């Protein structure tokens, strides 16, 4: 995680943009590099500023946050070594959570989250971890995001190059285990787990552990 975390705040409401920017700028280790008022502007500013984290609303006019996530992924601007996306919304709806995580978001928080939760989520996203509210995490682990469905051929193809051990690691990511917990479960070193997780993300094309968890939930028994 960088010593100083640069953030791009994206929201169509000026008051919300200003409030989020003020909260984040008040943190000693976080700097707001810029703001955007919709998904299209967010993509263009992300390409120019290369922030560590985008704090982005889901619902916005013209181009929303889900469109922005897809476009950022298409342009290679999202994921390890690039920008991370932390999604905020007032709507605690399963469909938004599922779509955002499947598109590569590193986290998902409600706008009524505390100042402390917001700062912690930005730091977690910058460090490459999933940043999810407890309620969202619980629903992912329990598999209640829209219910179990038949995996698509494209989803199954993303698992094709995984070794059996990497499949085991992906399944444990889906179940919400941390790297330390995976190491204990598989009786291997933490370094080994980190290597496996990195390979799983690379081989599946996932940009975050949360996206990998959604893929695993849809494809693995």
Automatic annotation (TrEMBL):
Chain segments annotated as coiled-coil in the UniProt record: none
InterPro entries found in the cross-reference section: CheY-like_superfamily (IPR011006), NreC/VraR/RcsB-like_REC (IPR058245), Sig_transdc_resp-reg_C-effctor (IPR016032), Sig_transdc_resp-reg_receiver (IPR001789), Tscrpt_reg_LuxR_C (IPR000792), WalR-like (IPR039420)
Phylogenetic lineage: Bacteria, Bacillati, Actinomycetota, Actinomycetes, Kitasatosporales
Keyword annotations of the record: DNA-binding, Phosphoprotein, Transcription, Transcription regulation
Organism superkingdom: Bacteria
Domain HTH luxR-type: 155-220
Modified residues (4-aspartylphosphate): 57
UniProt keyword annotation of Cell division present: no
Protein name according to UniProt: Response regulator
Species of provenance: Streptomyces salinarius
Domain Response regulatory: 6-126
């Amino acid at each position: 995680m960088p010593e100083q975390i640069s953030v791009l705040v994206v929201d169509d409401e000026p008051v919300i943009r200003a409030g989020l920017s003020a909260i984040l700028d008040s943190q000693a280790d976080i700097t707001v590099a810029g703001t955007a008022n919709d998904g299209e502007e967010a993509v263009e500013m992300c390409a120019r500023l290369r922030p560590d984290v985008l704090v982005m609303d889901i619902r916005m006019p013209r181009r929303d946050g889900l469109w922005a996530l897809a476009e950022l992924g298409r342009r290679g601007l999202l994921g390890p070594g690039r920008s991370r996306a932390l999604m905020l919304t007032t709507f605690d709806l399963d469909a938004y959570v599922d779509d955002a995580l499947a598109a590569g978001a590193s986290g998902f928080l409600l706008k009524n989250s505390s100042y402390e939760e917001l700062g912690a989520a930005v730091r977690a996203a910058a460090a490459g971890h999933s940043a999810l509210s407890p309620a969202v995490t619980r629903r992912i682990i329990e598999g209640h995001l829209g219910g179990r469905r038949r995996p698509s051929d494209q989803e199954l193809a993303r698992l094709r190059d995984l070794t059996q051990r990497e499949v085991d690691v992906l399944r444990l990511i889906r179940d919400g285990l941390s790297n330390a917990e995976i190491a204990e479960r598989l009786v291997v070193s933490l370094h080994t787990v980190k290597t496996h997780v990195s390979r799983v993300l690379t081989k599946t094309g996932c940009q975050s552990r949360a996206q990998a968890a959604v893929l695993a939930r849809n494809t693995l028994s």
